[in-house]
């Protein structure tokens, strides 16, 4: 193969990789939007904390949260304690906290 053929293959590979990364970010933002609505909306969220892979959120009205919907969205677990939910999200927990902070 000629050098220009290798360069073309590398460029095509980079374009495909960029498209995949960009589509994953859009999907993550859509999931975060759904999660905020499952928590009762951004006005229902008082405080957020991060504990490794767990996302802890304090809510005004815990009854507005849809725990089953949160699990269907991909959470590995949801624990309710008083007015708080501890949601196990794995590696996306940090991005979620940043997203909710930017909503306010």
What does this structure look like?
The chain contains three helices and four strands. β1 (45-51) and β2 form a beta hairpin. α1 packs antiparallel against α2. The model has no long low-confidence stretch (mean pLDDT 81). It is of the alpha+beta class. It starts with a helix and ends with a helix. Helices cover 52% and strands 22% of the residues. It has a single domain, classed as Glucose permease domain IIB (Gyrase A, domain 2, 2-Layer Sandwich), CATH 3.30.1360. It has helices at 3-38, 67-73, 93-103, and strands spanning 45-51, 54-59, 77-81, 84-88. The protein has a four-stranded antiparallel sheet with strand order 1-2-4-3, with helices on one face.
Task: Describe this structure in a few short sentences.
The protein has 104 residues and is of the alpha+beta class.
Defining key terms:
4-stranded antiparallel sheet; 4 strands; 104 residues; 3 helices; alpha+beta; Gyrase A, domain 2; 52% helix; elongated; single chain
Q: Low-confidence parts lasting 5 or more residues at pLDDT below 50?
A: none
Average pLDDT metric = 81
Radius of gyration, Cα only, in angstroms? 19 Å
Q: How far apart are the termini?
A: 54 Å
* CATH class type: Alpha Beta
Along the chain, the helix and strand elements come as HEEHEEH
DSSP, total strands:
4
Figure out the total of helices: 3
Q: Superfamily at the CATH H level?
A: Glucose permease domain IIB
Shape: elongated
Tell me the fraction of residues in β-strands, as a range: 15-25%
Helix vs. strand class: alpha+beta
CATH topology assignment: Gyrase A, domain 2
At CATH level 2, the architecture is: 2-Layer Sandwich
**Helix share bin:** 40-55%
**In the residues, how many domains can be counted?**
1
Largest sheet: 4 strands, antiparallel
- Strand order within the widest sheet? 1-2-4-3
């Amino acid at each position: 193969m000629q050098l220009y053929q290798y360069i073309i293959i590398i460029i095509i590979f980079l374009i495909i990789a960029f498209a995949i990364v960009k589509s994953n970010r859009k999907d993550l933002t859509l999931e975060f939007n759904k999660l905020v609505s499952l928590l009762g909306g951004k006005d229902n969220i008082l405080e957020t904390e991060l504990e490794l892979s767990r996302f802890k959120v304090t809510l005004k009205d815990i009854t507005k949260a849809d725990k089953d919907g949160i699990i269907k969205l991909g959470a590995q677990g949801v624990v309710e304690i008083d007015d708080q939910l501890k949601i196990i999200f794995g590696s996306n927990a940090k991005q979620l906290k940043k997203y909710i902070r930017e909503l306010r």
